[in-house]
Specification:
181 residues, mainly alpha, two-stranded antiparallel ribbon, 2 strands, 8% strand
């Protein structure tokens, strides 16, 4: 619980100044924040020696970006600010949600909840900065979550598990179970 409160505090302390300075500051902050869940996921996997997890994170991120760019160049939807025709879907949102889904599915809610808060900010910020509309970020989030779910398996710790039949002195029988943590 302390980890969650710490991560949420760090996120809000980082985000609040941008929110008070206008659309351009929010856009810049989402350009940076989109990488946070993936970077944290890679860091956690590396520290835990979870190289299979690093590979799964990479696969998830590559799939999310590939699908997003394929759609961007196929759909050619104009951005709300009129700057170009690559609005649908939001790659920032997809990338961020892909990292958050990896953290949630691989390492649990303690890592996933703060990552989803960051991803939610990225989605909100892209709409607030007029780079996307709600449908763009919803599609990006769906792509990110989908790629995360598709490529990520839960992290299983190695436990020595022993299960064996037993008989006691009175002739009773049972099952012995032990697990090393």
């Amino acid at each position: 619980m302390k980890r969650i409160l710490f991560l949420v505090s760090v996120v809000w302390v980082s985000i609040l100044p941008a929110m008070s300075q206008g659309r351009k500051a929010v856009e810049t902050s989402t350009d940076i924040a989109m990488f946070a869940p993936a970077a944290i996921g890679a860091g956690v996997a590396f520290v835990k020696g979870d190289y299979k997890g690093l590979l799964q994170l990479g696969e998830s991120l590559v799939a999310s970006v590939a699908v997003s760019y394929a759609l961007k160049y196929t759909v050619k939807k104009e951005r709300p600010d009129g700057s170009d025709f690559r609005s649908f879907p939001s790659n920032h949102t997809g990338f961020s949600f892909s990292g958050a889904t990896f953290l949630l599915k691989r390492y649990g809610w303690e890592w996933g909840v703060p990552a989803y808060l960051v991803s939610g900010y990225v989605a909100w910020g892209r709409v607030y900065a007029k780079r996307h509309d709600v449908w763009d970020v919803l599609a990006g989030a769906a792509i990110g979550v989908g790629s995360g779910l598709l490529f990520t398996t839960p992290f299983a710790r190695k436990h020595d598990i022993v299960v064996s039949p037993t008989v006691n002195n009175e002739g009773g029988c049972g099952v012995y179970f032990s697990m090393k943590f």
